[in-house]
Amino acid sequence: MVEKTITVGVNGMSYTRTVEPRMLLSDFLRQELTLTGTHVGCEHGVCGACTVLLDGRSVRSCLTLAVQVDGSEIETIEGQGEIDRLGRVQEAFRQHHGLQCGFCTPGFIMAVTDLLRHHPLESDEQIREALSGNICRCTGYENIVNAVRELARERGPLT
Fold first, then answer.
1. Which listed residue, 43, 81, 149, 151, has the most CB atoms within 10 A of its CB?
2. What is the C-alpha to C-alpha distance for residues 72 and 9, in angstroms, rounded to an integer?
3. Fold (CATH) for 88-154
4. Does position 157 have pLDDT exceeding 60, yes or no?
5. CA 143 to CA 93: how far, in whole Å?
6. Long-range contacts: 77-81, Cβ < 8 Å, 24+?
7. How high is the pLDDT of residue 156?
8. CA torsion sign, 100 to 29 to 158 to 154?
């Protein structure tokens, strides 16, 4: 199989790697860059667990080929904060108990980051609709909505 060399910015760092044309972005991030915070759930783009930001907009990394992101900037959950200094979205989820098992949380954090940058989210209905592409099987969503509502009211820097 013919491989292709790609260069991509991830969380502010530049990486050049040779990949197979069929390699998914989720596999590239997890296997090639050892950024395992991006989770793979359904592998069909339905659950949202693999959500990352590609040039500032959320995408499903399980549906995106690594060769498609050549020359792009990617943000993953690893770029959102540190253990001792959480990003604002992470902190809001922590404060409002918007996570339980944590499997879906990275995808939610990335989706919410995009949503807060590009959408008003002025009501709980808008928040719920905006989050409908991410599935959580543990929380019942109420605390996630509470976290996003607070963030939408604040609208300050997210990091």
1. 151
2. 6
3. DNA polymerase; domain 1 (1.10.150)
4. no
5. 8
6. 77/37, 77/38, 77/106, 77/109, 77/110, 78/11, 78/35, 78/37, 79/10, 79/11, 79/12, 80/109, 80/110, 80/113, 80/159, 81/159
7. 58
8. negative
Q: Are strands 57-60 and 4-10 parallel, antiparallel or unpaired?
A: unpaired
Measured distance between the N- and C-terminal CA atoms of the chain, rounded to whole angstroms: 41
Report domain extents, the chain: 4-78, 88-154
Within a 10 A sphere around the Cβ of 41, how many other Cβ atoms?
A: 19
- Tell whether the model's pLDDT for residue 40 goes beyond 80: yes
Q: Where are the beta strands (DSSP E) in 68-122?
A: 73-75
**b/e per residue 70-82 (b: at least 16 CB within 10 A):** eebebbbbbbbbe
pLDDT of residue 140: 86
pTM, to two decimals: 0.93
Unique residue bearing structure tokens 């200094």: 85
Query: How is domain 4-78 classified at the architecture level of CATH?
Result: Roll (3.10)
109 phi and psi angles, rounded to 5 deg: -60, -45
- Residue 57 to residue 67: CA distance in whole angstroms: 17
Q: Cβ distance 145 to 118 under 8 Å?
A: no
For residue 58, give the nearest of 112, 98, 127 by alpha carbon.
Answer: 112
